[in-house]
Amino acid sequence: MYTRLLQENAGADIFPDRSRVRDFQASTAMPTLVISGDHDIVFPIQNWFARVRELPTTQVMCLPRAGHGPQHEFPEAVASYITTFIRTTK
What we know:
The chain is globular. It has a two-stranded parallel sheet with strand order 1-2. By secondary structure, the protein is α+β, with helices and mostly antiparallel strands. The longest helix has 14 residues.
């Protein structure tokens, strides 16, 4: 649920923030990893770049040549990024 809300709210100009997820993101101390593809036409990576400046605990990983489902296109790489994020994030 949280992931879906994050995705919906990555593009502030497109989606209204009815559940106030943007406020939660800006105030949380919870580390967050966003994995996206540089060819994602549903939630373009450019939307995340502007948003992440406001989110000190968020990291963005962009996979080249990946679309909206980088976890399906490059499952080993995504699993590796997630594992590293979990192991190194306090």
